[in-house]
Amino acid sequence: MGxxxxxxxxxxxxPESVALDLACGQGRTTRALLAAGPRLVHAVDVGAALxxxxxxxxxxxxxxxxxxxxxxxxxxxxxxxxxxxxxxLADVGAHLHEVHRVLRPGGTAVLxxxxxxxxxxxxxxxxxxxxxxDRFVAHVPARGASTDGFAGxxxxxxxxxxxxxxxxxxxxxxxxxxxxxxxxxxxxxTGILAAAGDEPGLAARAAGWVEGLRRAARTGTFLFAVTxxxxxxxx
Length: 235
Ligand SMILES: C[S@@+](CC[C@H](N)C(=O)[O-])C[C@H]1O[C@@H](n2cnc3c(N)ncnc32)[C@H](O)[C@@H]1O
Prior knowledge:
Strand order of the largest sheet: 3-2-1-4-5-9-7
Shape: globular
Low-confidence stretches: none
CATH topology: Rossmann fold
Distance between the termini: 27 Å
CATH architecture: 3-Layer(aba) Sandwich
Bound molecules: S-adenosylmethionine
Helix content: 25-40%
Order of helices and strands: HEHEHEEHEEHHEHHEE
């Protein structure tokens, strides 16, 4: 099982229930939630990136909305997942209050995030990997004051300040051996390149580093992993 299946599993989706994917992006968590057999998945994101087949799926309702003003009625959702969203939010507390409002009493929320500082890349140049990663975790795309590359390890703080009861805490690191366009490792490496981009010398070395990752992937020696943290919350 990978990250998306893990969070869907923790959400314990009951057949015929109503689920909520918060910051759905292209819909990878939405797909994992659908596999558990809910009646409906609300897929919410401020952008419009949801894959076309999910937009056409009668079990999916897509909403363009902010995570602190959800267009859903009080108590209308059985289970919600917020995966890799909080690093983008200026006010995580407002997000969790909204999730609490739309969940039914007894409902489950899974608050999950990768902890980017734990990212592992197989590279010929460990020192450069460290340098690039340090820069990346200090430059995760910023939209709010809470943005940082250590988001996973801080989830419990957000949970403790929310109206939820913490039920359990989980962590894992999925191994990824692909490094082609669209792969998880590629996406993270793209962020690392962007973070190095405003320093010309480092940007050139980062481009060489990515070439090295490509070579490793071609010979089957590439590995990427990052620790994900998930907190299961009960209303
Ligand atoms: C890193 S992606 C995660 C997507 C998905 N949850 C996943 O794990 O594949 C972050 C998503 O958060 C969305 N987002 C950022 N700020 C948001 C906000 N204030 N309200 C709703 N969505 C937001 C972005 O549009 C993006 O799709």
